[in-house]
Amino acid sequence: MTDETILSVEDLVVDFETDHGIVHALRGVSFRLRRGEALGIVGESGSGKTVACRAILRLLAENASIKGGRIWFENQDVLALDAVGLSRLRGERIAMIFQNPSTHLDPLMTAGKQVGEALRVHRGVSKGEARRQAIKLLADMRIAESERRVDTFAHELSGGMRQRVMIAAALACSPSILIADEPTTSLDVTIQAQILDLLRGLRRERGLSMILVSHDLGVIAQMCDHVVVMKDGRVVETGSVEEVIGRPREEYTRRLIASQPFLMAPASAPASLGEPILALEGLSVHYGLGVGFLDRMRHHGGRTIRAVDNLDLAVGRGEALGIVGESGSGKSTIARAIVGLAPVCEGAILCEGQRVDAMAAEQRLRFRRAVQMVFQDPFTSLNPMFTVSETLAEPLRQHGMRPERDIGLRIDELLAMVDLQPDLKRRRPGQLSGGQRQRVGIARALALEPRVLIADEVTSALDVTIQAQILGLFARLRRSMDLTLILISHDLAVVRHLCERIVVMRHGRLVEAGRTERIFAAPEHDYTRELLAAIPRVKAMPA
Amino acid sequence: MGRFAFVLRRPFQLIPVIIGISLITFVLLQLTPGDPVRVMLGSRASPEAIQEMRTRYGLDRPVIVQYGYYVMNAVQGDLGQSLAFRSPVSKIIAQRVAPTVYVLVYGLALSTLLTLALAVPAARSQGGFVDQLVRLVCVTVVGIPSYWIGLMLIMFLGLQLKLFPVSGFGPDPLANLWHMFMPALTIALAITPILTRNLRATLVAQMNADYVTAGRSKGLPESYVFWRHVFPNSLLPTLNLAGVIVSFLIGGTVIVESVFNIPGLGQLMVRSVLTRDYFTVQGVTLVLALGVVLTTFVVDVLTVLLDPRVKL
Amino acid sequence: MTAAVETSTFQRRARRAPPTLVVGAFIVGTWIALALLAPWLTAYDPIAVDVTNTLKPMSGEHWLGTDSFGRDVFSRLLHGARLDLQMAFFGVVGPLIIGTAIGLLAAYYGGVVDALLMRVLDVTVSFPYFVLVIAIVAVLEPGLRSYYISLTLVNWVTYARLMRSQVLVLKNAEFVLAARTIGIRDRRIMLRHILPNAIAPSIVFVMTDAVLTIVLGSSLGFLGLGVQPPEPEWGVMIAEGQVYLKQAWWIAVFPGIAISTLALGFSLAADGMAKLLHAAQ
User: Fold this and answer.
1) Could you give the angle at the alpha carbon of A376 between the alpha carbons of A372 and A381, nearest 5°?
2) Of C225, C246, C255, which is closest to B159 when you measure between CB atoms?
3) Burial of residue A390 (number of CB atoms within 10 Å: 0-12, 13-18, 19+)
């Protein structure tokens, strides 16, 4: 790595004109990229990190305007380029890959054509030559059978494979800079590790300079030489990765680092597994593929998905159990089966020794009070038409938890339990932030004074600092309300912080279960080892 | 793989729909207040004539048997006897299919041209002057009844300016391009606003799709991105509207044929309703519905051939 | 972007109705007012024949001229508004209520009922809408009542389909699942959680549907299958003027303009309503 600057952004100001008025997305952002370097930009949602890197290629939405600042690429003023100059810059000199590979590929064009089209446009190569090059590029992205895959469409490829195609398309004209905007965020951790590995290799082989944008400090720490920390459209701190993570100067950077789940203290060892409050015995949940009644007749027992297959699991009273797995592992289905949202095909669910899945309606209603669930997506888990107080009053009334005159009081208590101001109760979800909504979701579950609380990926849609707060809230509620907690997550690090015991799931089956310390120190199963190795870790931990 | 097998299998999946159509057209006749045969034959008909007709179409049997007769007869091409024309309904319909299909196809072609000419510039100037203008035109035109548009065309282009003939469907297809221009334009104006708004919305949605940003990031020129990525992706959703559009178009021909005096199925339908020629009403309804089914079948096949994502 | 700014501008936005909605509502409102005040706004009987006064052009006496029976076109136009507005209302209300209820129930409970609804949808969509309406009117007997019956029989399907597609998504939304886990009963889930969140597209469609209903109803009148002469329905008036396009163009032209403006009003209102609901979400 030389010290020569290949790209610099100086005092960039970007405004968005929205229906809600003008939003200042960037308020004077500066950073530089040296030749051969990997620069990480880290920040939470609304920090402006994506806007900053899209501005480099002038890919901002129609309603955005660059109000000030300069962008220099090899002594060229990027903001002064005309359409032809811009088209030469994009793809040929600077390329970009995006977060969600499935929507960033044209569904009607084969992978090979999308990889080769930049060559066709920029270099004017023939169709046959573009195809040959595309096959080679796909092979370079370590796509097996690239001869065959070149003619496939995006929907025929897996998520990881799509991201490889997108990288191949970006690198077709051998650009000198690759901008990667959250390239692994929508992928499973093991796939994420593979893609990061690929990017690292490409950087070495091709001498690429790289800008990696991520919300995940772990990914940045693993991949980059320098890092820019952004917040609210400003650069908070910049420096080498070792400096920034090892000796953060700014308060916000320290908070960001402290919120990294892997750096949070692991849960302490359990005293001993108490008597089981909840037990799954040989639980199987299968879904038929058809949706309609006729489809079901047609497929008649043939094609079914075994979401959960013959699972035995006991949850001790007062423990915090983590269920971990990638997408399709069946972890959420377990939760849904327990609360009665997914059909139990075989096996039994026992709560305090009573079979839940065979209960009569009236009894079931009582059971519902005992086991409550918090849902994943804070944007869809609250009825958009209900105010906060209507949302919280509903369970209280349904189960007659309080006499009518005390309901208002109880709502205030519930809000206080989840650290929300009482004046929020007249708002609707549209007027709340993601973290606030998730707190309302937790309060709704708590309204029924449950003994078991199931939290299904409750923090995966939230920023890390908010995630840390919510995890803290769970830890506190658990102690103060004597709750049994089942935490479901794709993120081993999150689970490690809160749970004393971990169950690893894959393809609907239990892979490994054990005490958290033991799983992390001495995983028994290869898959668990793979998962652990895939966690992006922050190298230099602060004291 | 099985993409072409689908073309063979699809007609069988349409059987329930066709059964449903036959049921509804059958029930239609059952809804007539009083005895349809008596109404059709008139009050002076002899009891023998009434009895003969009843026996012939099984009208003296239980309803379920009557339905059986109806289906059996329809499959053999017997849709009953038109009392007004004193000849078989199927024969009258056969004579009148050509003008209707001609006007339909002509109208569809005109409206396709109009739609492309309006929707593409509107989408490309999203939110701009052209877009607003096209939107205003669409909102206005969609509410103008097509029979009135037809009359106004007759009044201005036909009677005053004498640019186009007011009516007359001839045997010569080329001359009909001339003669049928005003009817076809009338139909086209009725559906163009709907098609335009739909295509424009789809184009705009696709222009904001992520793969367009990805295409731009590779340095592809705007016009290349539009015609190679945005446009193909927008055609499929619009194509899927075709069934609805054709059913709308057929509704349009009913009116237009009456206004321009074209001897097609639409005009036949209206006349038969006014003369209470129930078998003809029933027959035309059946044939037009089967026409829509046929169109949706063709569209399904096209979709399967054009869209690699369709699950078979 | 801070939450506080977002909230205050959101409220400002919600209070400001889109201009198309304002203009649309104004046009429709004007027609409603004209229809209600018709007897006081014009001195002429819309139906009484006056053979001494046929085919008179526009004048101070007869603002929009007279028709072949010597009836005042302006008076007929205003009284016709009553009929056409009535069609827009009754043609839409029945299908909206029936279709919404069936779509909601079928999609929520699924199973055989939903499969059956799907088949009915498939079959009904196969009929050219207008042809089916005419066919039903034909077997009943031409007239306004038959038109309402026919529309209700055919058009509920549209609302059922709109509702069904919404409910299929919403019944798996997390807030509905959450309601189920806290033990809320189906009836309340459907009425309080799903319906209010699912109804918006149907409400927007009501406006568009009103346009279709008026145009269709007047078409029936024009063809002689709807409102029967001498009632001053706009389509009937255009049919009566058809023969006199050369000598007395005003008989057919003004009712056409009337239909077009009323339809435009509903279309604009639909457009604005769609924007408003979109902004609220």
Assistant:
1) 75
2) C246
3) middle
For testing contact with chain B, the best of C23, C126, C266 (most B CBs within 10 A)? C126
In C, minimum Cα distance to A22 occurs at C1
Do A380 and C281 make contact, defined as CB atoms within 8 angstroms?
no
**Tokens representing A15?**
């405004």
3-state helix, strand, coil in chain A (%, to 5): 40, 25, 35
Q: Best interface-test mutation with C: which of B21, B103, B139 has the largest number of C CBs within 10 A?
A: B139
Residue C48 in contact with residue C79, Cβ under 8 Å? no
Please state, in angstroms and rounded to a whole number, the distance separating the CA atoms of residues B298 and A206.
50
Paired tokens of A329: 């592992």
| Fold adopted by C82-280 | MetI-like fold (1.10.3720)
- On whether the CB atoms of residues A253 and A236 are closer than 8 A, the answer is yes
C140 and A CB contact within 8 Å: no
Contacts of C174 in chain A (CB under 8 A): 375-377, 380-381
CB-based contact C264 B143, cutoff 8 Å: yes
Neighbours of C12 (CB within 10 A): 11
Q: How far apart are CA C185 and CA C23, in angstroms?
A: 43
d(CA A69, CA A89): 19
Q: Is B310 on the interface with A (CB under 8 A)?
A: no
Measured CA distances, A168 to A95, A140, A165 (Å): 10, 8, 5
Chains that touch A (3 or more CB pairs under 8 A): B, C
The answer to whether C197 and A385 have CB atoms below 8 angstroms apart is: yes
Per-residue pLDDT of chain A (543 residues; tens, 9 = 90+): 457 899 999 999 999 998 778 999 999 999 999 999 999 999 998 899 999 999 999 999 888 999 999 999 998 999 999 999 999 999 899 999 999 998 999 999 999 999 999 999 999 999 999 999 999 999 999 999 999 999 999 999 999 999 999 999 999 999 999 999 999 988 898 999 999 999 999 999 999 999 999 999 989 999 999 999 999 999 999 999 999 998 999 999 999 998 888 777 777 765 566 788 999 999 999 876 544 444 444 444 445 778 899 999 999 988 999 999 998 899 999 999 999 888 888 899 988 888 887 777 778 877 888 899 999 988 899 999 999 999 999 999 999 899 999 999 999 999 999 999 999 999 999 899 999 999 999 999 999 999 999 999 998 889 999 999 999 999 999 989 889 999 999 999 899 989 999 999 999 999 999 999 899 999 999 999 999 988 877 654 443
Domains of chain B: 89-306 (1.10.3720.10)
* Amino acid letter, residue A506: R
E strands, chain B, where?
A: 81-82, 87-88
Contact map slice: C 175-204 vs B, CB within 8 A = none
Pairwise CB contact (< 8 Å): B221 & A83: yes
Contact (CB<8Å) B250/C131: yes
3-state secondary structure A138-184: HHHCCCCCHHHHCCCCHHHCCHHHHHHHHHHHHHCCCCCEEEEECCC
| A194 residue type, one letter | Q
- Spatial contact of B106 and B97, defined as CB atoms under 8 Å apart: no
Alpha helical stretches, state H, A371-429? 388-398, 407-417
* Helix, strand, coil content of chain C in percent (nearest 5): 75, 0, 20
Nearest CA in chain A to C276: A19
- Please tell me which of the candidates C129, C242, C256 has its beta carbon nearest to residue B248: C129
Q: Kindly list the residues from chain B whose CB atom is less than 8 angstroms away from the CB atom of residue A91.
A: 217-220
Length of chain C: 281
